[in-house]
Amino acid sequence: MSRYDAAVRVKITKQCGEFFQPTGHLRPAVLPRVAEAFEAGDISRDHVRNIVDVMAHLPAGVPVEVRVEAEEILVGHCRVGWPDDLPGIGREVLARLDPDGMVVSEADRRRKRGIVVCRPGVDGMSWIEGWITPELRALLDAVFAKLARPGMCNLDDTESLSATAGVIDSAVLEAAARRDRRDAGQRTHDALFALLRPGVDPAGLGNHRGLPVQAILTMSVADLERGTGVAITASGGHVSVDSALKMAGGTRPVLVVLDADGIPVYLGRCRRLASPGQRLVLVARDRGCTRPGCDAPASMCAVHHVTDFVKGGPTDLTNLTLACDHCHALVNDSATGWRTVVMGEDSRYRGRTGWIAPKSLDPSGVPRVNQRHHVGERVAVAVESSCQRRGSRGWGSRVA
């Protein structure tokens, strides 16, 4: 057993195990609902590890009943969701418990930031490690979304497209991508190398999937008015509202503010390709690939017509959605193809994109939506229900 695995098991045991105290009394589990679900086999060890990490960051002044409800929300997600989604749910929970950012402040993040380039090894290679701020992550993600794509900036391919390429020919990029044998880490390395080479202007990287290479930040009107909460990046990251507003004051990042209904953008059938304005709204609305279960962020997605353009589908926002390249290719009229529809007025997901799996995967033919990019909605519903039961305006109002 590795040292890391042993440490994780000890950490889980301390929070989920029952122990006899020196007085002889039995000390119950710190996280009893997690322990119960784990013992029943409803959740995995990875689920428990992530829940323990989230609960450790809750403010000390949170009332016991709110802490219990936060635990129930996390356990409830585990029964239907993936362990990798829990940090995002934890950020949503923390944003509501700590709206003023007193637990993890910007000063804390600035103290923690740092990148260390270790000494070269015998082979001349150097290891890099460290922590970067959410703001730097948002900027890097925007660059890597373009330059670290398969077929871009490949040091092993002299015909690969470079960072200085102007208008990118999709056929040339697809051919280069088929020749690309690099893994994700190697593509990121080559993208950073290309970005830092002489003659490359970061401000002149052109477009990526119809938008300039720049950070895109989305926040709600309510959070903007309060000046608290988080903004979401096109790659699925989180930036505090205060930091997002500071970034938006520059010339590069784009800030999208949406109300509860979104922003209507209509182009009818005057063009097949979505406009940059529509793409911005889709990034803010869908946040990523809309096929159920897919976790590809918006920065890795193309715009898809729910009703195909060749079948009369308009290039209106109500008929557009985001889909990653892999999922986009699954939509076809064959027996094994997926279909997309707009959820109706009677659906709880009104206006969202529903995906219908082929009969071989789901004989019911029921359209389903992707919730992986909208964990905040589930947290908000659970928090509202919790506050109604306790007669409180919100979780944060009870924190000492």
UniProtKB/TrEMBL annotation:
Q: Which Pfam families match?
A: DUF222, HNH
Top-level taxon:
Bacteria
A single GO molecular-function term is: endonuclease activity
> Which first-to-last residue range defines the signal peptide?
none
In terms of SMART domains, this protein maps to: HNHc (SM00507)
InterPro entries this protein is in? DUF222, HNH, HNH_nuc
Where in the numbering of this chain does the HNH nuclease domain appear? 277-329
Membership in a protein family: Belongs to the Rv1128c/1148c/1588c/1702c/1945/3466 family.
Descriptive protein name: DUF222 domain-containing protein
